[in-house]
Write a structure and sequence with these properties.
The complex is a heterodimer of chains A (376) and B (597).
Chain A (H helix, E strand, L loop, with lengths): L8 H8 L2 H28 L6 H21 L3 H25 L15 H22 L5 H18 L3 H17 L4 H21 L1 H11 L11 H13 L23 H9 L1 H24 L3 H25 L17 H18 L4 H9 L1
Chain B lengths: L18 H17 L6 H28 L6 H8 L7 E2 L5 E13 L7 H11 L5 H9 L5 E7 L1 H10 L4 E10 L7 H4 L1 E2 L5 E3 H16 L12 E2 L4 H18 L3 E8 L5 E7 L24 E2 L3 H12 L8 E4 L3 E3 L2 E3 L7 E4 H6 L3 H11 L1 H10 L24 H8 L5 E2 L1 H12 L3 E2 L9 H6 L2 E2 L3 H17 L13 E11 L2 E15 L6 E8 L14 H15 L17 H5 L13
Parallel strand pairs in B: 1-7
Antiparallel strand pairs in B: 1-2, 2-3, 2-4, 5-6, 8-9, 8-20, 10-15, 11-14, 12-13, 16-17, 18-19, 19-20
Helix pairs in contact in B: 4-5, 9-18, 10-12, 10-15, 10-17, 12-14
Classes of the chains: A mainly alpha (376), B alpha+beta (597).
Chain lengths: 376, 597
């Protein structure tokens, strides 16, 4: 047992970390592995790879990811900020490099050196934004708010150039929510809401594939033929054919024809094989993590930790909610993965980084430290 | 905002003497205020966001619950049980011979939702089943249904080949397929079924209407063993015989078409029915050819002189004439600008039997005129000649009745022109006139004489019926029906030759001939009808195309051939007292045969 009396770094960590959060994230990682076993073999077979190719790779990524998460969670807020700054700088540089030198995959340049740098930019951006907002709220004289505002275009412009509208939207939403939490005047809340809405409108108006997806969601019949709704229709059928208890692991058949069954639509595969009740369990787990961290954030006295934890968990929560909403056809199709459940190396490592930051900033700390920092 | 500003003091008091700095100050303050974020607000704002997330996840959970409650579109079992053709009862002839039965065949079906590579499946399936249309199959497999047919009724070898393809989502179901082992024999009575084994014509359709459909609709799984076979009045052997004789006759006389039927006059059962050209019900699409109609019930024709029997019976029933009456046939009958001639003109007063045997148009017309237009109409209605005859067969036709029925109509209809009826309808009437005067609706189902007589209505007195049989007998002995006087069966008969109407006029060279025969004439059992459409004159018929030469000859052959099967033993001696009622009424001469057979 770890002693409270000895103040080793590990003991410190063990007694201050939020164990509910840690346990939930651990559960998600294990679930992700199990569900990848269900969702990835059909894709592997389709691509002519060995049946458990993606499972093996997922395990291969999971070990360093878990290590990274634990390691990051040891950081102090100060170090969290510094490493976030580092990762952000590196990430943006790589994103720009990807735009310039990366090869095109499905009409976008997102990959360089086998990674997707935008994945790493996300948590780092949130931490930096939380930093700026906390500074802006704490002091009246520092132009931190301006900095926070400038941070958004600095991040999303390269993303739009990739283009990667999913990440752009996610980052903008988290940023807006953070701004809202920081106590922004309602005038701006309305204003930013308007800008967001017009942003969506502009995308709808001028970006053909965004427009197509939205139109298809509103009226599936209007699309270019019935096969356009194939993904979503098959996902619906998966849930319906699975019923409450599912067909049983490995018994799914619709997953064989469901595109992206190991990534974007793994939730539907889960519905087919494990049932609706199991899916509700997964939703509950995600909801638990999000609500617990937001609750902890609302009680956290350190402004940076408060905003950082809220921001990171919103990033995580929004991404999972959007993915699940797409799967159950509450939203038009959007390329977004389900955190820890969907297959994907970059996304797993970046999630581990983000969650490591999250655990780090939700650690309980003596009041004196906080006050010390606030009085600084 | 470079200047530090205190938001809660200094800005509020309004100074009217210094408006410009006050305004600038207030504007600056407002701008600062707008740009400032306040940490104290964040606690409840974070909770507000948390509430938003709780709502978001609840909506997703709610949609999941909704999906959980949503039933599967259609389970395979149900879809399959709806799609599989259901069993039908066997159809047997009056002696228990099988006329229609079900056999088990295998059909290939697919579950499109379970097929992984649809193009591959189409390619493999069409390679094994070459008669399946690849494009249509691809469309069917592309549908979102849970169950589609690939091909119904495949051979065992095909089944094995499809099985060996090992396609997931492709499987087999046993189905019932209707077969008619006798091919075209009795085809018009039996009708046929569609690919789902639903009766769509003939007795098959009638069976469906008798509750089989209701049972299926109610979702009962029908066990073939539970279905009671349907017994028809048809005799398979006799039907085959008359079809064969008819076929030969049509060939010999180069007729366009023909039909023959045998009616049991005491029970109303149709013992045999053939209509040529016909079709094989195992290949139902042939039945759609308009030439292949059932000429006994669907075709309506002017029955010609056969109708004279009805007219004479009417006059007798109305007591306008008796067997001893004489009718003026000295000269042609004029009516307005029309003149009625006799084919075998005698130009003298004719007795009633003579009117019948010489087939005198003038004589029958005069008798009908004695009864009058209204009486004529009423009698024909009573005889069922003016309304559609409804039997078990759904295929039937309405008689074509003149819209304005005047005296001229009565005159022509009396000798069989101007009223088109279905031949079976005419048989019903002549049957009633010969069986003692009881109207019995024909049936294609087996029934007893008691059942038939229970619902029968008396339409003419028994002595009128007997007189009519006597007339038909005399006609066979020395009149136009001599071709049918088969020794030992005491047959009576009447010919009918009608000129066909071509472009609104009676054509002299195209005839429609009918022949009705009753056997035996003393104790009537069977009524035979043969009709031919446009039989040709032959050298051996001495250039005649009238009914006796063709339809009559065929009827004679039929009687000879089927009498044994109908349990009509030939009698070596003629009946001594064939018409007792007439004898008692003082017509003793009727029992003296004019000829020695």
């Amino acid at each position: 047992m770890v002693s409270r009396a000895e103040r080793s770094p590990f003991a410190d960590w063990w007694w201050t970390v939020d164990r509910w959060l840690l346990a939930s994230l651990g559960a998600l990682m294990v679930l992700g592995l199990v569900l990848t076993l269900a969702g990835s073999p059909p894709v592997a077979e389709r691509l002519g790879l060995s049946t458990f190719h993606f499972v093996n790779r997922q395990v291969g990524y999971l070990i360093p990811a878990a290590a990274l998460m634990i390691a990051t969670s040891f950081l102090s807020p100060r170090h969290v900020r510094r490493s976030a700054l580092l990762v952000f700088g590196l990430g943006i540089a790589l994103v720009i490099a990807a735009i310039m030198f990366g090869h095109e995959v499905k009409g976008a340049r997102r990959w360089i050196f086998g990674i997707q740098p935008s994945e790493f930019v996300k948590p780092a951006f949130v931490v930096l934004a939380a930093w700026a907002f906390s500074e802006g709220a704490r002091r009246r004289d520092v132009p931190a708010n301006i900095l926070a505002i400038l941070l958004l275009p600095a991040t999303i412009v390269p993303l739009i150039l990739q283009p990667d509208f999913g990440q752009t939207m996610l980052i903008s939403m988290v940023w807006a929510a953070l701004f809202f939490m920081a106590g922004l005047h309602w005038f701006w809340v309305a204003g930013i809401g308007g800008v967001g809405a017009s942003g969506v409108l502009v995308a709808y108006k001028f970006v053909p594939h965004v427009r197509l997806r939205i139109e298809k969601f509103i009226d599936p019949a209007s699309g270019v033929g019935a096969s356009d709704t194939f993904q979503v229709d098959t996902a619906m059928e998966s849930f319906i054919s699975g019923g409450w208890l599912g067909k049983g692991p490995g018994e799914g058949t619709l997953k064989r024809i469901l595109p992206d069954s190991h990534t974007d639509f793994i939730f539907a595969v889960t519905g087919e094989e494990f049932g609706v009740l199991f899916c509700i369990g997964i939703v509950t787990l995600f909801a638990f993590i999000v609500l617990r961290v937001l609750w902890l954030a609302s009680k956290n006295e350190d402004p940076f930790c408060r905003f950082a934890s809220a921001g990171l968990v919103m990033l995580f929560g929004l991404q999972s909610a959007i993915n699940m909403a797409v799967n159950v056809h509450l939203m038009p199709a959007k390329g977004m993965t389900l955190p820890f459940i969907s297959y994907g190396g970059s996304s797993l490592i970046s999630l581990a980084l983000g969650m490591g930051f999250l655990i780090a900033v939700t650690r309980r700390r003596p009041k004196s430290q906080i006050i010390g920092r606030v009085m600084e | 905002m470079s200047e530090p500003m205190e938001p809660l003091d200094g800005g509020q008091p309004q100074r009217s003497d210094q408006p410009r700095p006050g305004l600038r100050y207030r504007l600056a303050q407002a701008a600062t205020d707008l740009l400032r974020t306040r940490i104290d607000k964040s606690t409840w704002r974070i909770r507000l966001v948390a509430l938003g997330f709780a709502g978001l996840f609840s909506i997703i959970g709610g949609k999941l619950v909704y999906l959980g409650f949503k039933p599967e579109p259609q389970s395979l079992r149900r879809a399959a049980s709806e799609a599989v053709s259901r069993p039908r009862p066997e159809i047997l002839d009056r002696n228990g011979e099988v006329l229609a039965t079900d056999i088990k065949v295998m059909s290939v079906f697919a579950e499109p939702r379970r097929i992984i590579d649809k193009d591959e499946a189409v390619e493999l399936l069409t390679a094994v089943l070459p008669d399946v249309n690849a494009k249509e199959l691809r469309e069917r497999l592309g549908s979102r249904k849970g169950f589609v047919w690939v091909k119904r009724g495949i051979k065992p070898k095909e089944q094995e080949e499809v099985f060996r393809l090992g396609l997931p989502g492709v499987s087999f179901l046993p189905e019932n397929k209707r077969v008619y082992p006798n091919g075209p024999v009795a085809a018009h009575v039996l009708g046929y079924t569609n690919v789902d084994n639903y009766g769509i014509a003939g007795i098959e359709k009638y069976i469906d209407g008798q509750g089989l459909n209701d049972l299926t609709m109610a979702g009962f799984r029908l066990d073939p063993a539970d279905l009671k076979p349907v017994r028809l009045s048809i005799d398979l052997r006799v039907t085959h015989a008359i079809r064969d004789e008819l076929e030969k006759g049509i060939e010999r006389f180069k007729a366009k078409a023909g039909a023959a039927a045998i009616l049991d006059v005491n029970t109303g059962e149709v013992i045999a029915l053939a209509s040529l050209p016909d079709y094989d019900p195992n290949n139902p699409s042939d039945a759609l050819d308009p030439l292949h109609i059932n000429r006994m019930t669907v075709g309506v024709y002017e029955m010609g002189s056969t109708f004279k029997a009805i007219s004479i019976a009417m006059a007798m029933e109305a007591n306008k004439v008796n067997l001893n009456s004489r009718v003026d046939a000295r000269e042609s009958l004029r009516y307005g600008k029309f003149t009625i001639h006799d084919f075998h003109a005698q130009r003298r007063m004719l007795s009633v039997p003579e009117v019948f045997t010489y087939s005198s148009n003038i004589g029958t017309a005069r008798m009908a005129m004695m009864v009058g237009v209204e009486g004529h109409k009423a009698f024909l209605r009573k005889m069922g000649q003016l309304d559609r005859l409804r039997t078990e067969l759904p295929e039937s036709a309405e008689p074509i009745v003149p819209r304005h029925w005047g005296e001229l109509n009565t005159i022509t209809i009396a000798f069989g022109q101007g009223l088109n009826v279905a031949p079976l309808q005419a048989m019903m009437a002549v049957g009633a006139l010969s069986n003692g005067g009881q109207m019995i609706t024909p049936t294609f189902l087996k029934r007893t004489e008691e059942e038939a007589r229970a619902n029968a209505t008396q339409i003419v007195r028994p002595e009128v019926s007997e007189a009519l049989r006597y007339l038909m007998r005399v006609n066979a002995e020395k009149g136009s029906a001599r071709t049918v006087d088969i020794r030992g069966y005491f047959v009576g008969g009447k010919t009918g030759t009608a000129d066909k109407i071509v472009h609104g006029h009676y054509a002299k060279d195209r005839v429609f001939t009918t022949f009705m025969a009753i056997a035996p004439a003393d104790k009537p059992r069977y009524l035979f009808l043969t009709l031919m459409d446009e039989p040709q004159a032959l050298p051996e018929t001495q250039g005649y195309r009238t009914a006796a030469w063709n339809s009559g000859a065929v009827t004679g052959k039929i009687i000879e051939r089927v009498a044994n099967m109908l349990n009509l033993p030939p009698r070596l001696d003629l009946p001594t007292q064939p018409f007792p009622l007439l004898a008692r009424l003082g017509y003793g001469y009727v029992n003296t045969p004019s000829k020695g057979n």
